[in-house]
Batch of 2 targets.
Target 1
Amino acid sequence: MDPPSSAARRASVIAGHLLGPYQSIANFSSSPVTPSPCLNYSPPDLSEKPPAFDVAALRRILDGHHHEARDWLFHLMEESPLFCPRRRGEFTFVAPDYNQTKEQQRAATMRRIEYLLGQGVFQGWFTGSDPEAGMRKLALFECIAVFDHSLSIKLGVHYFLWGGAINFLGTKRHHDKWLNASENFQVKGCFAMTELGHGSNVRGIETIATYDIDSGEFVINTPCESAQKYWIGGAANVGKVFHSTHTIIFSQLLINGTNQGVHAFIAQIRDNEGNICPNVRIADCGHKIGLNGVDNGRIWFDNIRIPRENLLNSVADVLPDGRYVSSIKDPDQRFAAFLAPLTSGRVNIAATAVYISKVGLAIAVRYALTRRVFSITADGPEVLLLDYPAHQRRLLPLVAKTCAMSSAANFLKRLYVNRTPESNKSVHIYSSALKATLTWNNMRVLQECREACGGQGLKTENRIGILKAEFDVQSTFEGDNNVLMQQVSKALLAEYIAAKKRKHPFRGLGLEHMNDPCPVIEANPTSSTLRSTEFQLNIICLRERDLLTRYASEVSRFQADGESKVNAALLSYQLADELARAFSERTILQIFIKEETTQSPGRLKDVLGLLRSMYALTCVEEDASFLRYGYLSRDGAAAARREVSKLCGDLRPHALSLVNSFGIPDSFLSPIAFDWIEANSWSTVNDE
Amino acid sequence: MYRPPVPDPIASSLCFASSSCRPNRFLHCLNKLLAFDQGMTSFSQDGGNEAATDQVLVEGSRFTRILILNRPRQLNALSSQMIMKLLNVFVAYENDPDVKLLIVKGNGRAFCAGGDVVAVVQSVTEGNWTMGAEYFRNEYTLNYIIATYSKPQVSILDGIVMGGGAGVSVHGRFRIATEKTVFAMPETSLGLFPDVGASYFLSRLPGYFGEYVGLTGTRLDGTEMLASGLATHFVSSTNLKKLEESLSKVETSDPFAICACIDQFSKAVSLKATSSYNRMDVIDKCFSKETVEAIIVSLTLPICSCCKEKEAESVHDEWIMSTILSMKKASPISLKITLRSIREARRQGVDKCLINDYRLCCHILRQEASKDFFEGCRAILVDKDKNPKWEPSRLDQVDDKVVDRYFVEVRDANWEDLKLPARHSLAAKYVSRM
């Protein structure tokens, strides 16, 4: 065969561009000596099979609520130049300009807040009190975080922390004075709890408030450097018009030399022109690995004076004559009441973490459906990333986990907005467990997605890499994940002891399975057994049941050896970790099963079943405790592992539809999710 | 808000929202279109009866066919015979290698004033609502075929283009506006909503212009159509004959060649000072609000820095007054359905939009929550007293849950969702001329 003329070769390359990969693959098979045409991009939406289920219906399940309001807000952000629309090839993407200085990012964040405020996005965030308004607020919050974590945290500090403190800890006089003014940002608030020396241990903070009977004022002081308020979002420099004017101060309350414990006060830190008030010193926390659109600051108080009325007094009050009165006598409970505003933050963080995982997965899966690497046959076309079983194993279990966690986040949100005094304990436990589990999952998802996109994952414009930095903080703020998980186990232990002592059955927190006979697990489960809801629930519940019993007996053994109750729990930290994980995963599985069973039979339900099996068996595969404590035989564990691999193959055809059901608008994804060849072509270089 | 200059016709005909952030995932698949692999070829090319043949005339040269909507006394309103005839013709020509280009135009002073809804309402009042549903089913199927058509269509909009008229033109690749063009989607004042897949193209107009056009039913002239991207070219009415002659000589389906041919006759035009398109800042500010109520409230508030100058203010006020008035006159439930439909369409392909339109339509024909469509037709088209009595009569009486019900499947054992003919796999879902 004659070598093709250069013109003919060029024509064939162009034809390859025009005709798409099918043609080029066809060329390969018929005449293997044809020079390779250039790579070309084939959109996964055309190359993949059409959806086998109703994608919109799955989106409604996963979003759970207010999908119209979400789309409205997404579109508001797409349409405003403040959200930095950037043209890449035929696509436009919105994302903050992370190349700006922290000062510029802060100012941009505040301008976006102004815009959203003007559009009525925050309407009813303080003043609406019904559960629906609460759910709407949470939905909109998730969407805002999809654009930028700084934007969501600035709003979170103002609405959830500052506003939440006034709402929950204040009384009518505070509500009347502050809530309306805060909803429309006339008053800009922050929340000064954490100190340099004390973060998770809020009870140990060193700031001191003393009551001065003569003037009827509190005098608040920072007695030492470790007492400086630290990480106070919204406290530092954002440019005069946008400065926070007020803060909640958490402080020890001293009355006549008696420490009444931690209380919350309102103090003005700047005047309306943005000048710092006398006896207040403020400094910046400096540049961070992410969240530079938030002005985290440090505050010192030099005996500032605030009126007695500024004590948030729903829990406890100081009368003008200096008498201390409280409706809650137990100081532990009183302290717990002061932490109420943090619960809403945890709920919100957990829900946001899932949405961000969806962004990462949608990008990585779409990329894996278009990027090819290595031929597996001589002269054959290179193979799509997602057609490699190993690549499927990296991404698809995370897709399943993220779907299951969506349902769990929706459960948590509903539990929170419908909370009652009786449900406060379970709200605390669920929010702690899910906040930790969902944010850890988010970091893991983003890391895996970053690596799954190779070098492209490093580019800020592709989002995944920068999201890692921006959302890393989720693991430690509003409660350090490790501390929260230890608290969950402690709470479960308390349930256990109470049930045993009173010989009552377990009730609540999903622990009812503890009352049933211990499940028996087959030594050699078949594929269909492994995929059955019954088997999955049994094995996941068995782990929790056994770990709870083990934890209780280890703690009591340490106590019997003379350790204090507290120390005994600390020494049992390994079991506590395992137990909290077992509790979280069992909770998520149960919620996801419930979601599946409410669906009528059909293809959507089948896919939910695949996702559920993938979730459950991945949990089994990834936790050594199933083998360590013998819940599964070695053969059983091997079978579960094989089943995960099979499930990857079963989910592969649905991969695109699943990430489409995440409901993230195209413009909030990134160039590698679409035509990354066009986006990187020479002709676009000048647009960058 | 960044506004593009009057857009490049090829680019804009491919993708509407050149200024917005909605990428069209499937733009580049355009040329890979679209085998029509469904058995609709059984339609005979001549259509049914003699009358139908008269209502759509077909002329043509070697490679070009000119379809002329021919009911001038009814302003070319689409009768069901016309729809069937157009279906037949479009299907037949897609597979005919001798046809490279379709031109669609109207006889008389209208391109097409809409669907023949009076006939629909009459048939529904006389008998079963499903007869009306059938009309819309065929119309939407036609819209879909046009939106996913593999050969270029040039629509010459030399007169009135409303409702159904937009459905048979705007989904096609090239839309030529003239100084005689009057465009509107006036359905909300009729107790209906912008159907024929209009939610698809309205949602892809710059900013919130689509919400404005759909909710108010405002009239646009040819320049405004061009500026917003509803039209791809502006040609003087007097040059149309020469354009047609030139297009008749085209021997290719290549959109670039056809575009170049039209370009020769295109005229640079500028917006009138009073054009709504010059009010995009207000439109974006107000029509971006979450609900119809909030949109109206925001229009009544003293707005923005743009109207500080005294002189501008009076013009501005007049425009705002008429904008508010048109929504006050419209059916409240229609307004809410329209807003929801356009907003949902942003995330949907043209097929989903049409399936949605069909659901909405069937609920309306069944008069479940409201008889507004029948009342609107009576007041505007039959009795012409222009004084419809909407029920519910106020926006705040329209419960969101009632609106929700319009968007779900119809509860009737014999009813099913609109089944669109299979086009080339997934491509058809996204590929449209917009």
Target 2
Amino acid sequence: MARIGVFICHCGTNIASVVDVAKVAEAAKQMSGVAYATDYKYMCSEPGQAMIKAAIEEHHLDRIVIGSCSPRMHELTFRKMLKSTSVNPYMLEIANLREQCAWVHTDREKATQKAINLVQMSVAKVAGNKPLHTSMIPITKRALVIGGGIAGIQAALDIADCGFEVTIVEKEPSIGGHMVMLDKTFPTMDCSACISTPKMVDASAHPNITLKTYCEVESVSGYIGNFEVTIKEKTKYVNHDLCTGCGLCQTKCPTKVTSEFNQGMSKRPAIYIPFAQAVPSKPVIDPNACLKLTKDKCGICEKICPIGAINYKDEVKYTTEQFGAIVVATGYELADWKTMYPEYGSGRYPDVITGLQFERLVNASGPTEGHIIRPSDGKEPKDVVIVKCVGSRDPKKGKTYCSRACCMYSAKHAHQILDKIPNSRVYIFYMDVRTPGKGYEEFYDNTRKDGAQYIRGRVSKIYQEGEKLIVKGEDSLIGRPVTVEADLVILATAMEAAPNVEEVVKKLGISMDKDRWVQEAHPKLGPVETQTSGIFLCGTCQGPKDIPDTVAQASAAAAKVAGILCHDEMETSPMISFVDQTKCSGCGFCVTTCPYKAISLVEVPGRDGNRKVTKTVAQVNEGLCQGCGCCNAACRTGCIDLKGFTNDQILKEVDALCL
Amino acid sequence: MTELTQARTEERIREEAKKALASGEVRAVVGWCATRFDDRTRPFFAETAEECDLLVWNPYCINGTAKFALDDRYPDQKLALILRGCDSRAVNRMLRDKQLKRENLYLIGVVCDGKENPICEECQHKTPLVYDVLIGEPAKEQIYPERFRKIEEFEKLSPDERYAYWAAQYDKCIHCYACRNACPACNCIECYADQYRVGWQGKAADREQNQIYGLTRAFHVGDRCIECGECERVCPMHLPIMRQTRKMLKDINELFGSYEGGLSEEETPALGGFRLDDPDEFM
């Protein structure tokens, strides 16, 4: 006969103010199998735990029911406590009297009755509990970082410095991301490339870091400590093991297409290194542009390459590797303002550019070598309009959120224009100016002192008149329409999550919020974790942020990864499913239903009447099983059960409530 | 089908059956034979060439043949089945559920033109979908537009009215498991209902246990039902059993897109697979 101890927690007044806890404990004493029941102010506190331990000794209890808060809160606490007693940690059930009773009810009498019912169910269930034991599984001490922007690079460097191997998977031919496109960074005005390229080089030279550029994550399986990731290497058509990065091929390639790196403001050859400081500084061939690959003509790069690194027959390669933890750092893209704002010309006017295009324009390594000129005629602009919140904070046309970095980089753009072009005028249309960062407000103040004119209001229309762009808006502070004749218009467009983020999220089994940003586990207490343990996030894949925040978050994610990888092995939950192979029909629906690929069909010797036959039955991989119970529901024979949540136990709970 | 082609088909069935047995690989051919009633046939295992001449093909060949293959799950020799469209979907069902091996079957498909069975009016696949040899010209696949009409009408009733309807039906049920035994989707080695477990499916034939059985059966076969109507045909108490699986199929069609069970050996039934993008409107 089971000897069950029932402990009802007041949770201060959280439970006790609505539920008559003494009455619940009194009722529990009458329940079948209950040897002892009591109530106490805080069961989770040290005296509370000591009381449970003493009761176990005194009343020879062999299983415990605790009526308290949600098991998500303190089930682990009580399991840990039971480790030092004679009771197995899994001979424990929590009746949730707080979230599922006290917090949601006001009628004391009814709530007390419900609390008694909940305890009755847990008592019925715990009677069927069996001692379970955890096992240890080894941890693969390697991390995968998806995305090679500044977030990914920083996370990888920090993890690698802790002594663990890291692989960075980057979909572009070079790491660096958006930061390396920028000219100067606010508020210190240090050169973006000068501070990010050394980190890129560090990452490529670090003995613990493997760079996999021009690669994508193909599939992910496994779980924390033991992820199995297949990485797809796209066709580079250049053997990077041979290539010395001399760049001869680039100079001779006859095809010229729009440069992605320069935001469409210059051309690049079909075989290209995206930018001068690229890491690795080795070219790839754009298969959509290359004459050899599209029309089987040309082939100059192959002829000219001094070491024969060009391979037009290159194929997609797949490699499968094991990782213990994964960091998602897939970054952002600028929202496509052209479809959102037809009133700004939908891209018809070449002198209406985005902030990122301006960064390339003002960058010494950019298409104009740092000269701010109009893309249309190459003339120096005198009147420049900056429009903020293009797509951000605009629920009707764009995103509801604020893109956070635009106020500051727009102030920086204004400062750079006023600094570089004598007698220039800058007009900034804004909704609010948000400068919550160290030195940000001072920077904004200085920009205004430089002469930037801030006009509070949205721009309603931009159109060309002769050489000028007519910008019509409203100054909402004086309540009058404003018209500015501008030479150049810079749009501070909204950030949005990278275009392929859905794919990555799906492969990893994590989630996105309504704005397509990758969802963190908790906005305050789990900002770099995802709902899937072992997978972390950092940088702008989680939401718009500037470089300091991104780098800080990357280091935070790295600390979390190191926290896992520093262990040799980890405990697995014993609450997993098991198959009664004598009843199994081998239909395999548990195999297709399992989200963790933890079940497989195996052949075992069996009997059919008086014949010996080979039967096909299901088998659970105990390392992979997460105890979700999908197989349990899919099994028609009922031969799969979940340890600690058996069908019989659940039936007993239902019976306790209904009979 | 005219008398002539019916006789010709029967002749061809006997020929193919004999050929199959003559190959030495086939233990028996499952089809239909005459009974002492003109309007009845019964399932028949032809094991010799002479017995093959007893096989018949007429509008009264209404029993399903496929499920007999489950009688021996580990056969030494092949079993030949005479298949109509519905039987072929039953074979696909059991192949997909890994209860049969294709190499243990020899399938003689016959293009069917409907039998004296009300379900045949709703048939969408008269030509077998899987076979080794086919008798007759493949017929055009038909669409039965009324597939879910009865369900739609039934759904208009209030929950209380529906409960009353089913309660009355299950008061009639004698808990004989004939529906399960005839169903090609009910192919577990040991049915949950046959297991002895405390608090599990009760064995008594009362409304409560009958309803539990009916509900569980509907969920167990709902997404894999091939709409052959065997359950209703064999029910001695004439319960409208198909209505439950049709309701499941209607919901599946609405939630997961167009679906029919048993069309191929590879299909994954809606409730038998895990997909991250599964719809969750019902949550």
